[in-house]
Amino acid sequence: MAEASAPAQSGILGWIERTGNKLPDPVFLFFYLIAGLVVVSIVAALTGVSALHPTEIDQTTGSALVIESVSLLSADNIQRLWVEMPKTFTHFHPLGYVLVVMLGAGVAERSGFFAAGMAKAVKSAPKALLTPVVALVAMLGNHAADAGYVVLIPLAGILFAAAGRHPLAGIAAAFAGVSGGFSANISPGQLDALLFGITEEAVAASSLDPAWTANIAGNWYFISAMTVLFLPIIWYVTDKIIEPRLGPWVGNVAAEFEDGTGPDPTQHDGELASKGLRHAGLAALFVVGLWLLMVFAPGTPLINEAACLAEDGAPIPDCSIHSELRPLYQSLVAAFFLLFLLTGWAYGRAAGVITNHRDLVNMMAESMKDMGYYLVLAFAASHFVAMFEWSNLGLISAVHGASAIQATGLPLPIVLGLMVIFAGLLNLFVGSASAKWALLAPILVPMLMLLGISPEGATAAYRVGDSATNIITPLMVYFPLILVFAQRWQKDFGLGSLTAMMMPYSVWLLISGTLLIVIWFYLGIPLGPDAPVTYVLPGSGS
């Protein structure tokens, strides 16, 4: 498949492309921000920038503790930077979460399990339900990382063409689901581990709630609702807006791929793939059964029965069941690791991709090689977050920012909605979800906590904006690849054509996602198990 160069764009799209291309790589963006942070910390320390801690009391005066800005060039901070550098990096919360999950997900991806599962689901769809099935599988496929883009999107174009429909409509529906609905799913996964790891780091750095720990199921209910909401939107936009504009399809599927340069429609099909999927299903049942056993069996390790008992053994009144289930929630990272590992292994063994234990180990090692860039990014981001904490500027900014928002009188749901839009706009220029959240979380998470919005609520609002505009920015890493897939069917299809085709999806996903988070907050529905949307600071008495 030959790549065609994208034409230069004018107008707002051209400005976005030119401006975004001038930005440094996210790794160096963090290094530049660290340099700027050092300068700001010096100025803040010299001018006496400070704030009153919202919960802690100065024992000597009995008044609220004064948080003073600290120069990052102070002797203590310089020593901390060099002495604690290994600790700063390795103790970065997202690092462990993501690497553990990806050890398993890498096997599921490289064995072909993810690709075969998505291909099987889409190919089995009735013609009348082709669009919603493609959209649903695409949204669920964000657990499959690259496979969603590389396998499902070109496959959707082939299946639409085979059904007599325009293949670009299939590509659009799949792209909208995989990337526009990037955070939507029916279960947590590696993205949740990544984002909540950064959220936990931000909460810890703020010192507002030292007892708060990340629960990667903290947005489970919300992302499930996003899936239900986004599915009919993608279906409607594809069938009623995009496909009518594209017009009828008059091409020939076989002719388009007779040179062998296109994606092979049968690559992830056949008896071996079916056998592999059956074995993977049995492996999945084993993992689910194992976790159920550890929850319901006597003396289970994943239920903390003592959490709702006082020291004298008496039951604690109004103690939430979620307190007892906290070990279960914290075990979900390991659960997804084992689920992906065993299903991928079972599929690979049955399909002949994995012949011995060395193949399995090699797949795990290759998945870690793919995480090389993330490790470099995590090194830069971890020091940015840590130095924000050392300077006290994160908490000071959060306190003053919360006061400024309170002074405007804006309702909190509107504040969340504005955060969604802000994240969506920033996403046009900085594509990495983890880079943006590592940049924003140290200020936004504690600021929203001070306003009464939980860390889970801040994370949910961010991920709505981060997903919706993925499909219209030329800076998204897979954007050129999608352009190549589209040009396979329409030679003159350019960057502007792709952006214009995806714009209705982006607008409606952003509007509907914003309304969802606003209404969710108004109704006070938990975002996940033991994850309320509202928040009360410990010891605030409110």
TrEMBL record:
InterPro entries: AbgT (IPR004697). Keywords: Membrane, Transmembrane, Transmembrane helix. It comes from Altererythrobacter rubellus. This is AbgT family transporter. The keyword Membrane applies. One of its GO terms (biological process) is p-aminobenzoyl-glutamate transmembrane transport. GO terms for molecular function: secondary active p-aminobenzoyl-glutamate transmembrane transporter activity. The chain crosses the membrane at residues 29-52, 95-116, 220-238, 280-297, 328-350, 371-390, 410-430, 437-455, 467-486, 507-525. Pfam families: ABG_transport.
